[in-house]
Amino acid sequence: MMPLAAFAVLFLVAAVAPIASAKPQQQTDIREFVRSPLFPRSHSEVQAAFDASVTPDLLAMLNSKAEEEHWLRIAGMLGAVGDERAAEGLIEFVEEPGDARLSQWHHEGRTEAIRALGFLAYRTGSERALTYLIDSLTSGVWRERKVMGLAPGRKSYAEYDSLLSTYAIIGLAWSGHPRAKEALMSVLRSPTPEQRPFRDEHEATLEHWLEVHALVAELGYDGLKEHYELKRLREHYRHLKENVRKRKAEFEKKQRALEAKFARARSAMEIERMDARERELAEAIRELEEQQARQ
Question: I want to staple 118 with a disulfide (CB 3.0 to 4.6 A). Which of 20, 175, 202, 235 is the partner?
Fold first, then answer.
């Protein structure tokens, strides 16, 4: 399974949808906004554009099968807007039974709803959202909650439940909340017998998302965006320097090869000149000897 560390470079709302960015105007119609291919570039832009008054419309859309294509962004917005009323609606959506085999849209909406509980906890300190995520750090909890419907590509509920708990880790990291840190550290350092198999499978993921949690707590979402952008630029600069070093090394290698080839060619020419000179001397000696013989 590919580690979810890569998600750390996704910004709060950019993580909600694959997107061309657009800066929303204050209180744009929320229905049209989440259906649009355009989405804001930062958490602060969402806060500037929408307040808690859009929560009822978002919850209604999250419960509408007709909006399934947009559930991922709807769930993300419910977390980003920051209204405590969203917590119960997101949890009900996660636990709503789906088809035996979920559509990709439904699966993405469910996992985003889990992460959105972390966004909500960050905005409001929601105890309901935090407790739900903390209780999700054991894969078996999803069978207790009777969360039905397998994601595309998942062969068993054991595999799928492990994935859902991984998204709970991500949600707790995004919360930046002290309780979230305690829970993640507890699973990593002193897991219960029920948590140990999950810890053993996701140890590296837990360590990574604890690092993200620390950054969220220190920098906030927009600060985190700047942090990863700076990290990306530094990495790009490092790659450029490495490419320059490699090209320089290749050039120097070719230069040495040409110099060696030139040296060999020059040696060959000098040997040829020496051979020619020896032949000339030999011919002169022969002529001199013939003259002496005739005398």
Answer: 175
| Residues in CB range of 223: below 8 A, 6 or more apart | 215
CB within 8 Å of 46: residues ≥ 6 apart: 12, 13, 24, 40, 77, 80, 81
Task: Count, in order, helices (H) and strands (E) of the chain.
Answer: 11, 2
Element (H, E) at 290: helix 196-294
- Cα separations in angstroms, 178 against 121, 136, 183, 192: 11, 17, 9, 20
Query: What confidence tens digit (pLDDT) does each residue in 108-152 have?
Result: 999 999 999 999 999 999 999 999 999 999 878 999 999 998 888
| C-alpha–C-alpha distance, residues 207 and 184, integer Å | 9
**pTM of this prediction?**
0.71
Between CA 73 and CA 24 the distance in angstroms is 15
Which tens digits make up the pLDDT trace of 173-185?
999 999 999 999 9
Q: Note the pLDDT of residue 43.
A: 66
Q: How far is CA 86 from CA 107, 126, 141, 235, 283, in A?
A: 19, 10, 21, 38, 108
Comparison of pLDDT for 49 and 172, the residue scoring more: 172
- Give the residue extent of every domain in the chain: 4-222
- Strands (DSSP E) along 29-146, which ranges? 38-39
SS3 292: helix
Three-state secondary structure call for residue 143: helix
Long-range interactions of 271-274: CB distance < 8 A, separation 24+ = none
CA 110 to chain centre: 19
